[in-house]
Amino acid sequence: MIVWLNGTHGVGKTTTGALVRRLVPGSRVLDAEKVGETLMDIEPGLPWTGNFQDWPPWRPLVVETARRVLEYTGGTLVMPMTVLVERYWREISAGLAEHAIPVRHFVLHADRDTLLRRIEEDTVLGPSEFRLAYVEPYAEAARTWLHQEAEVVDTTRLTPAQAARRIAEAVARG
Questions:
Q1: What's the rounded Cα separation, in Å, for the pair 47 and 63?
Q2: If you classify domain 2-173 with CATH, what class do you get?
Q3: Residues 5-49: pLDDT tens digits?
Q4: What is the largest CA-CA distance in the chain?
């Protein structure tokens, strides 16, 4: 099974994902961003689009990587990865379904003010223009399709540990 943690950049997916891994027996974290980073390392580079998710190889490589890891290890993969383009999410989820891999899709959500404060006050990355650039695209995706496609966990008033516990409990309930 895959526990996919979606939501905009800076909402806490990576932190929450690490905590979910500790709470879900037999789970591992697979960061699909690493697939994008591998593609970014190709020399000479692929034609830059502004986001590696736009490269056609990224989405099937995410599916294939997850499939192969699950085939090798079994268990659950916790995948913290922002996907805000509906077509990309459909491609990934359909690819996983073709291999009969169940996906629990969660969206970590925070209200706009909380999200902006978290991005501005991040002590590791500092204020991030990259993260700020995705606040509006996330709001549009949430409004038009994303929140209908996933279980929304409103983290506005939750710590990452509380959010992780809610997700782990939902996964355990089936």
A1: 22
A2: alpha beta
A3: 999 999 999 999 999 999 999 999 999 999 999 999 999 999 999
A4: 47
